[in-house]
Design a protein that fits this description.
Helix content: 40-55%
Strand content: 15-25%
Distance between the termini: 99 Å
Amino acid sequence: MKRTFQTFSLIFFLTILVAGTLAFVWSMRAVGNAKLENELSLEIETLKLRLANEVNSELTLVSKMADTPIFKDYFLHPEDGAAEALATREFAAYRRNFRNNSIFWINDRDKKFYSDAGGYYVVDPDKPSEYWYNMTLYRTEKYNFNINYNPALRRTNLWVNAPVFIGEKAERQPIGMLGTGINLSDFINATYQNLRPGTDIYLINNSGEITVAAEQKLAFDKIRLADHLGEMGDKIMAAVRRLPSGKTRILDVDNVKIVVSSIPQLDWHIVGITPVAPAMLFDDKMTGLFAGAMLLIALIFIVCNVFVTNLYAAVDRRNQELVVLNRAAQAASDAKSSFLAQMSHEIRTPMNAIVGMSELARREYGTPLGLERIGDIQQSGANLLAIINDILDFSKIEAGGLTVNCAPYEIASVFNDTRHIIESRIGEKPLTFTCSIAPEIPARLLGDAVRVRQILLNLLSNAVKYTPRGFVKFFADCEFIDATSARLTFIVDDSGIGIKPEDLPALFGKFKRLDGNQNASIEGTGLGLSIARNLCRAMGGDIAVTSEYRRGSTFTATIMQKYEDRRPLGDISVSVAAAETGESVRFTAPAARVLVVDDIATNLKVAKGLLADYQMQIDTCLSGADAVALARKNEYDLIFMDHMMPEMDGIEATKLIRELGERERNLPIVALTANAVSGMREMFLASGFNDFLSKPIDTEKLNALLEQWLPPIKRVAKGN
């Protein structure tokens, strides 16, 4: 027994040693990464300040020259020797103040390019290579920049060009231009002397072309950074497009640190790239301290091991007692989960009947007061059913019965359905709901769309529930892990009541309702976040939260999803204000009959609400099969058909409707879909649809579409 304990003790010590080593390595990597990031960021910021200082000083002088009366008189009368002499002296005086002692000037009458180097040549504004001339004189208010590489001198110059005007601003006319050249080659070469070995610096313009680099031919050939660096360049340019003016962002790509920063003065960006070697992240002093600490722990462990060996028998007895207690607790937990699952299942059946029968009663019977009472029954039944569903999901998770399916689905449909449901739950609340979705997310994913929607609804419903006023913001982004999988990140940010710091550890607990006094009137089981976290973990991700009490909370959820191709989702970001006004309905059509098909009931409510002002006869259904049956039974003037539906999708339903008869072959059918990427319109038209309307529905586009496809005889201009 004693030998067994000693063996275990040795294993335990080795575990501590390995864990400590791993923790040390991780922490040193984290500290080293932070140090490297700060160092590279400081170098980039210093470079920006030096460049900005050099450009601003030259720019100030050039702008001042452009307003000098002597130069204006000379540009108006270049043949006047006295004016030329005065201007020449003035040019010489100004030239001494420029860093490179370099200036040039051109008058628009003879278009001769003079410089301090002497001599001249005549500019031809019609030549593509001298596009800068027309751009400066006729499309520039104060100044502009252009860059060129001189292969003979192996030098890159940044030219600062300023037009010279006469007359007042409303009627002013250009009469010439002047400027200076900044030697960027010397600037970048001096910069490299202070950089960590292996670091590369690039300046790029707003078209993604390299303007300055150590290999100056890249600038001469106008090579794009994405072409030069391949996949890494694509990721850098994606960061550049999302980077606000004047800001800096740090990227980690394949063991390479990348700093991207904006240069507002030039409308350029500066990119710093440093390969990260493991040795760069470790400090010799810290390594020595760690080794000493491990030796001290080993000594303490040996002393403690001698003492603990004598108490082993008592500890063993206590361990046996804990095993018995743990088994009893596990048995109780299993019994509880089994009971919850059984009871939730048994309760759902009569609850579905209550909700369904109250809906039938509301449709068929009752006075207005009776209908109001039935509506109350329906709402209470729906709330109770939601609670039961949470309990059932949670009991499945605890019982190990949670399954995550893997099937193709359109992520845009999930986003759109979720947005509609959340907007309906916001109701009359003074909330602004904003959705910002990265366009590069693949349009078609492989996963469990129902579970993804459930995660989003849990997080967004919580945000709406606990935010009495202000905003709820939803962000979605994507990181490509390999050729077939991507990590999706969902962020929900709100200005709600927030969470106390001491309550955060219990936030994802079972049946937890935090801050009971403040939240006593808010319904719910306290299971939503626990269910959402378990779903995220089942899909290879997790949920994290940050919060400030009474200021709001931010929830970040991640999941892993497969994809078949990287065809992007496109821009479907939306913002819904707390109160919207506007009038886009230009006619009514009380004699027209329209069918709306969508497998999400909330989407049907939204579409029906948008069509209500047209006073049409509106039928709705939840499946493609029902749509075919209604089209066979009724004569419609227009059908709005959802694309992605289970069992029978919109394309198949449209095909069957077209086969019903001559009238149906000419019946206008419009595709309703959340998938608005390039090429979808052509696909729908080729599949038998007459037109295409993307979700979320734009009322102006809806009005134009109805004007196009409803029979003119059934439209009545508004106000008639």
